[in-house]
Automatic annotation (TrEMBL):
Gene3D superfamilies: NADP-dependent oxidoreductase domain. It comes from the Bacteria. The lineage of its organism: Bacteria, Bacillati, Actinomycetota, Actinomycetes, Micromonosporales. The keyword Magnesium does not apply. Residues 66-360 form the NADP-dependent oxidoreductase domain. Pfam families: Aldo_ket_red. GO terms for molecular function: oxidoreductase activity. GO terms for cellular component: cytoplasm. SUPFAM superfamilies: NAD(P)-linked oxidoreductase. This is Aryl-alcohol dehydrogenase-like predicted oxidoreductase. Keywords: Oxidoreductase, Signal. The keyword Oxidoreductase applies. It comes from Actinoplanes lutulentus.
Length: 387
C-alpha cells in the first residue's frame, strides 16, 4: 500500500474514531459461549437473554443504562462487517432488548452510520434517543472528508439538515460537537445550537473530548446535557477534571470505547494481527509490547469474572457504571452475541467492598501506550478561542 493510501486510511479512521438474529443467553460466561458458538462447559444451563430495564439520566435526558455505539457499523473502522442488513437487525434487536440510546455521527462512514441508524429506528423513533455529532470538515453534499475541523455556525446548521434526512427524523435528541474547533469560539457554537433548539431540530447538546474551560463557557450560553469522552479501565483521564466538572454542573457523561476497543473483553491480545484498514492498528497502546504489559488488566478481569459469574466485558461496563449514576457507556457491536453480552451487564454489579478491592488492584497496574495516535490525540482537551 502506498504512503498516500496509508495516510488516507489513517485520516478516515481518525475521523471515525474521534468522531465510538437469534436471541441467546448472555447473562454469564457459559451463556456467552453458547451465543458465540463455543461450548459452554461445566454443564452450565442456558438462560434467556437479558432485557435492559434500568435507566439513567444525562442531565434531564432519560436513556437506557447502556447505549449502542454505531460507529463500527459502516465497516470502515474495525474492518468489514457481515452486511448492512445485519447491522440494521442488530439495532432492532437492541431495541427489542430494552436499549433506548443510540450513538452515531456524520463522520462515521461518513454518513453511512446515520443512514443505518435511520433505517433501523424509523418505526420506533418516538421510543428511542438518537445522538449524533458534527464538527469534522465534511462536505455536507458529497461526504468528502476535507482537512481539519469545521464548527462555523452556518456549517453546523447545514450539517444538521443533512443528519435529519439521513436519520429519517425531524429532530436529533442529543447533538454533540465532535471535537472543539480551535478556530471558532465555543460561544458561537453554543449560539448556533440554541438556534437549532428553538427551531425544534435539536433537543439537547453536548461536547466530545473538550477542554474543561470550554465546557464552562458552552454551558453558560446553552446548558449542556452530556460530555462524551473515552473512559475505560485502560484510560481514566476523565477522573482528573471532567467527571467532577460534570457533577458540579449537572451534566451527564457518556463513555466511548468503554471496552478499550475490545481489549478488556479479551478478544485482542499481543498476538492479534489487525486486518488492513483496522484503525486499532494505528493505536500506540496496541503495539505487541504495550498489549503484553497491559494484559495484567485482562488477567484481573478474568479472575473477577470467575468470582462474579460474568464476562470480562460485562465487568468492564459494570465498573464504569459504578463510578457515578449519571455515567452511560456506549459499547459498539457488529455481532448480536456481543450486543447481548453487553446488555447482560444489567445482571451484575459490584458491592461497595468489591468496588474498592477491584479498583485498588486496578490502580496498581501501570498502563502502557498512548490511547490514540498523536494527530488524533492532539484534538482532545482543546480549549476554544475566546470571541
Amino acid at each position: 500500500m502506498s504512503d498516500n493510501s496509508s495516510r488516507r486510511r489513517f485520516l478516515a479512521g481518525a475521523a471515525a474514531v474521534a468522531a465510538a438474529p437469534a436471541v441467546a443467553s448472555l447473562a454469564g460466561p457459559a451463556a456467552a459461549a453458547q451465543a458465540s458458538g463455543r461450548p459452554a462447559g461445566n454443564g452450565a444451563p442456558a438462560r434467556t437473554a437479558t432485557t435492559l430495564t434500568s435507566r439513567r439520566r444525562l442531565g434531564n435526558l432519560k436513556v437506557s443504562s447502556i447505549g449502542l455505539g454505531c460507529q463500527t457499523m459502516p465497516g470502515a473502522l474495525y474492518g468489514p462487517v457481515s452486511s448492512r442488513a445485519d447491522m440494521v437487525k442488530i439495532i432492532r434487536t437492541a431495541v427489542d432488548q430494552g436499549v433506548t440510546f443510540f450513538d452515531t455521527a456524520e463522520a462515521y462512514g461518513p454518513f453511512e452510520s446515520e443512514r443505518i441508524v435511520g433505517d433501523a429506528l424509523r418505526k420506533v423513533r418516538d421510543d428511542v434517543v438518537i445522538a449524533s455529532k458534527f464538527g469534522w470538515n465534511i462536505d455536507p453534499d458529497t461526504g468528502e472528508q476535507l482537512p481539519g475541523l469545521n464548527s462555523r455556525p452556518a456549517h453546523i446548521k447545514r450539517a444538521v439538515d443533512g443528519m435529519l434526512k439521513r436519520l429519517r427524523t425531524d429532530h436529533i435528541d442529543l447533538l454533540y460537537q465532535h471535537r472543539v474547533d480551535p478556530a471558532v469560539p465555543i460561544e458561537y457554537v453554543a449560539g448556533a445550537i440554541k438556534d437549532l433548539i428553538r427551531a425544534g431540530k435539536v433537543r439537547h447538546w453536548g461536547l466530545s473530548e473538550p477542554g474543561p474551560q470550554t465546557v464552562r463557557r458552552a454551558h453558560a450560553v446553552q446548558p449542556l446535557t452530556a460530555i462524551q469522552n473515552e473512559y475505560n479501565l485502560l484510560w481514566r483521564g476523565p477522573e482528573q477534571q471532567i467527571l467532577s466538572l460534570c457533577e458540579e454542573l449537572g451534566i451527564g457523561f457518556v463513555c466511548w470505547a468503554p471496552l478499550s476497543y475490545g481489549f478488556t473483553t479479551g478478544t485482542i491480545n499481543p498476538y492479534t494481527r489487525f486486518t488492513e484498514g483496522d484503525f486499532r492498528a494505528w493505536v500506540p497502546r496496541h503495539s505487541a509490547e504495550n498489549m503484553a504489559a497491559n494484559m495484567a488488566v485482562v488477567q484481573l478481569l478474568s479472575q473477577w469474572a470467575v468470582r462474579k459469574g460474568a464476562t470480562p466485558g460485562q465487568l468492564s461496563l459494570a465498573w464504569l457504571q459504578a463510578q457515578k449514576p449519571w455515567i452511560v457507556p456506549i459499547p459498539s457491536a457488529t455481532r448480536t452475541a456481543h450486543l447481548l453480552e453487553n446488555i447482560g451487564t444489567e445482571e451484575f454489579a459490584f458491592t461497595a467492598d468489591e468496588l474498592r478491592e477491584f479498583t485498588t488492584a486496578l490502580d496498581a497496574i501501570p498502563i502502557r501506550g498512548e490511547r490514540l495516535p498523536a494527530p488524533v490525540l492532539a484534538l482532545s482537551g482543546v480549549e476554544a478561542p475566546l470571541p
